[in-house]
Specification:
heterodimer, A: mainly alpha, two-stranded antiparallel sheet, 15 helices, B: alpha/beta, 6-stranded mixed sheet, 10 helices, 11 strands, 36% helix, globular, binds adenosine-5'-triphosphate, binds magnesium ion
Chain lengths: 329, 252
């Protein structure tokens, strides 16, 4: 009885502490911010940023939340890109169907590759994923050149959805914004759920989870598939966005962009992923105009972040806001 | 009383080291058992074998009459074997109540269905929170539910460690040195806790501080160099000359 009472008291406290803004409010805020930004940076550029943002979100689930660094995430991004392109070319030009086909292809490939790689962790996980990514890159860039256009890539054709031309601006901008909000919503949901606890627990102590009666590999696989499907989603948008695809979208070398963006914003935090993704793209786009070797600046920035701001920008801001309001804990 | 777990010729070798050596024990359902022995005598390794952390080099383990020698750890938990760790093994970056979530929902059928597990918000889920708080209440940590568990004192982390396992409501509870590293006040709290929950479990407790738990132990096993060298009522076992020699002679 006493325990019951204390539990209720603590629950009460819990809801007090946890009065985080409702998810709808957050979605509206994000939408407003991106729309405002589009007035300064232009809608096409913001569209690029948002697609990248979805990829960064997907990477954050594996790396930030589950604590598994991979260098093979572009495999799923590229699978989405190529599958959607080929689907629209060979099966139906409807972009919505193309997107779904690309997501399914990414998820399927992730389920197959994942069932092998989730048995590993640490450096092995990162490198085995990279190896798979190189296999995929080789197939697309060389072995299957007849279908994929090889190193030169190929033009992609996007049809209409009924009478609606999705590629038309500003519709395309708002469509991609909705995709970003949807991805954010999904990640927000699953990271706040018991599954989210599982994913974060895997980051810190896989062994203990086994002794709580769970098949850890299964949940790693589920996480891997969700993150990969989301990356494939971003990939499908890329082909519609540019109308042209190349093996570069599948290159393991581009994985570093995802890692950088995650580190800048703060890994393991969906706001951090969005912020980091946007900042990274802004730097990439603008710094390169003013600084010939902008990668050098990026490199120095990363050293500073990894040494001084381990929790990224969002972590840094959070800490300072909490200190200010005196509820720092 | 029937046996809940039995081992037959159980051995674990690490290279030439025989950490557990031909151990044959039978634990009675509902009993409280102690395991003592000098450092490195194989107590933790025995737990690792029973809980599935390692596969034995030789021998067989029966749980409720069924051969579980090759079962994975998670399947042994499903059968009803729960263990705590000598070196506290929690999720330090998670809040204290979040630590409890996986334990309390493990055997709730409702959470087998996808949407509840994947999409429901735990910080607004009265059902889960209530269960978590109740388990935390049991070990006196409910006030610290919102702290990051890595920030807890060592003693509190140990209480959380035990709560993680107890929340699974295992039939057989294996506790590896629950008193290690605790101060006097914490020790008496832990003992009181064990006393309170012991009627619900069959327990095996590895503990150096034997005098503290002597009173509520039904059966005591003494290990030395991988062998179980003696077993029986604590009062009798502790006065066996060979036990006194190997145990009190080498430790403390
Ligand atoms: N994974 C391992 N690999 C190699 N040797 C091990 C391993 N685990 C345990 N050992 C060795 O097996 C022997 C028994 O170790 P164990 O941890 O079971 O002892 P213990 O009785 O629990 O000791 P303590 O009282 O210090 O906890 C020790 O010599 C130890 O070094
Ligand atoms: Mg030990």
């Amino acid at each position: 009885m006493e325990i019951k009472r204390l539990a209720n008291a603590a629950l009460f406290k819990n809801t007090e502490i946890k009065s985080s803004p409702r998810i709808l409010v957050e979605l509206i805020i994000i939408a407003v911010v991106f729309i405002l930004l589009s007035f300064f940076l232009g809608k096409p550029r913001m569209t690029d940023f948002m697609i990248f943002g979805i990829a960064v979100l997907s990477y954050d689930l594996i790396y930030g939340y589950m604590g598994h660094l991979t260098i093979g995430h572009m495999l799923y991004f590229g699978t989405g890109t190529y599958s959607a392109t080929l689907f629209m070319k060979l099966v139906s030009p409807n972009p919505l169907l193309g997107i779904i086909a690309g997501i399914l292809a990414g998820a399927l490939l992730a389920a197959i590759v994942g069932s092998l790689v989730v048995r590993t962790k640490g450096a092995t996980f990162a490198l085995v994923n990279m190896a798979f990514n190189y296999v995929g890159f080789f197939l697309v860039a060389y072995a299957w050149a007849d279908v994929t256009g090889g190193e030169d890539g190929m033009a992609s054709f996007t049809g209409t959805v009924g009478p609606v031309n999705l590629q038309q601006h500003p519709l395309w901008f708002y469509f991609v914004l909705s995709c970003l909000l949807l991805s954010f919503f999904l990640l927000k949901k699953i990271t706040a759920s018991p599954f989210g606890v599982m994913v974060k627990a895997i980051k810190h102590n896989e062994t203990r989870i086994k002794f709580l009666g769970y098949n850890v590999h299964y949940y790693k696989l589920v996480t891997f598939v969700i993150a990969s499907a989301l990356a494939a989603f971003a990939g499908t948008l890329t082909t519609i966005n540019y109308g042209y695809i190349a093996p570069d979208y599948l290159s393991p070398l581009r994985n570093e962009e995802l890692i950088f963006a995650n580190l800048i914003g703060g890994a393991g935090n969906i706001y951090g992923a969005l912020l980091g993704g946007t900042l990274y793209m802004v730097m990439k786009d603008y710094l390169s105009i003013y600084v010939a070797r902008w990668e050098l600046v990026l490199g120095i920035l990363l050293v500073v972040i990894s040494l001084k701001f381990r929790t990224g920008l969002v972590g840094f801001l959070k800490k300072h806001i909490q200190l200010r309001s005196g509820s720092g804990r | 009383m029937s046996q809940i777990i039995t081992t037959v010729g159980l051995s674990k070798h690490f290279g030439s080291l025989k950490a557990v050596n031909n151990v044959n024990i039978a634990i009675k359902e509902g009993s409280i058992n102690g395991v003592i022995g000098p450092n490195g005598s194989g107590k933790t390794t025995l737990f690792n074998l029973l809980s599935g952390y390692f596969l034995p080099t030789e021998g067989t383990i029966y749980f409720q009459g069924e051969d579980i020698t090759h079962l994975t750890p998670q399947n042994r938990v499903v059968k009803g074997i729960g263990r705590s760790f000598q070196l506290v093994s929690i999720f330090p970056q998670l809040k204290v109540y979040e630590n409890m979530v996986l334990s309390v929902i493990r055997f709730l059928k409702r959470y087998k269905t996808g949407s509840r597990f994947y999409l429901s918000r735990i910080d607004a889920n009265k059902e889960i929170l209530n269960d978590c708080m109740q388990c935390l209440g049991m070990v006196g940590l409910e006030d610290k539910a919102q702290l990051r568990s890595g920030e807890l004192s060592y003693g509190d982390q140990r209480l959380l460690e035990i709560a993680l396992t107890v929340a699974l409501k295992p039939r057989l509870l294996l506790l590896d040195e629950p008193l290690a590293g605790l101060g006097d006040v914490e020790i008496s709290f832990m003992l009181e806790l064990l006393q309170r929950i012991k009627k619900d479990f069959t327990m095996v407790i590895v503990e150096h501080k034997i005098t503290k738990i002597e009173d509520f132990i039904d059966e005591l096993f003494v290990m030395s160099q991988g062998f179980v060298i003696c077993q029986g009522k604590p009062s009798e076992v502790l006065y066996t000359p060979e036990v006194r020699k190997c145990y009190w002679g080498e430790v403390d």
